[in-house]
Design a protein that fits this description.
Blueprint: E1 3-10, H1 16-24, E2 27-33, E3 39-44, H2 49-52, E4 59-64, E5 69-79, E6 86-93, E7 100-109, H3 113-116, E8 119-123, E9 127-132, E10 141-144, E11 153-155, E12 165-166, E13 173-179, H4 181-202
Parallel strand pairs: 1-4, 2-6, 7-10
Antiparallel strand pairs: 1-3, 2-3, 4-5, 5-6, 7-9, 8-13, 9-12, 11-13
Keywords: Ribonucleoprotein, Ribosomal protein, RNA-binding, rRNA-binding
Protein name: Large ribosomal subunit protein bL25
Organism: Sinomicrobium weinanense
Length: 203
């Protein structure tokens, strides 16, 4: 999985006044959990653009001014309800020998025969929870739809990989090909017209 480096400064004061001063200076207060104790630090708000405003998922290298570096993943983020300004971010520290669970985007590949025949491909799971060692976390999970006819479903069991475990029940549907509304209406109209044509003959 791709990683983004966030350069930050450790925070000595974590009170409301200090937090307000950070935000006024264009910085985001952050906390790193998962170590011996929570680590409070701050970083420029612009540093988070490639991490927050993207559908992709990345791990993070937190690079502090004192030379310390931590591998982490985004755990929680708070936005201002009106301005959408980033108010606070929580990170969780990663360890090479400890598995972690993350939501990974699903990427569709292939052409479904059912779509060519008039069906509609519905992606019901845009992200899937995956459990793996940090080194084995994928950038995305490939869902190949080349075998899907109208009415077929693709389950998580078809997306298995020995490097990671998908943390969903086996009957979880990732995507399916359904009859389009236009095709369904056309079939209903045809059936109705056929019924009306036969009606006089039945009397």
């Amino acid at each position: 999985m791709k990683s983004i480096t966030i350069k930050g400064s450790q925070r000595e004061s974590v009170g409301k006044a200090a937090t307000r001063a950070l935000r006024n200076a264009g910085k985001v207060p952050c906390v790193l959990y998962g170590g011996d104790k929570p680590l409070h630090f701050s970083a420029d708000e612009l540093a988070f653009s490639k991490l927050v405003y993207t559908p992709d998922v990345h791990t993070v290298v937190i690079d502090l001014e004192n030379g310390e570096k931590f591998n982490a993943t985004l755990q929680d983020i708070q936005f201002h309800p009106v301005t959408d300004e980033i108010l606070h971010i929580d990170f969780y520290q990663l360890y090479d020998d400890r598995e972690v669970t993350l939501e990974i985007p699903v990427k569709i590949e292939g052409s479904a025969p059912g779509v060519i025949k008039g069906g509609v491909l519905r992606l019901t799971k845009r992200k899937l929870k995956v459990k793996a060692l940090p080194a084995n976390l994928p950038d995305y999970i490939v869902a190949n739809v080349s075998g899907l006819e109208i009415g077929n479903k693709l389950y998580v069991t078809a997306l298995g990989n020995e490097d990671y475990k998908i943390v969903h029940p086996d009957n979880t549907v990732v995507c399916q090909v359904r009859v389009s509304r236009a095709a369904m209406k056309a079939a209903q109209d045809a059936a109705k017209a056929e019924k009306e044509e036969k009606a006089p003959a039945d009397r």
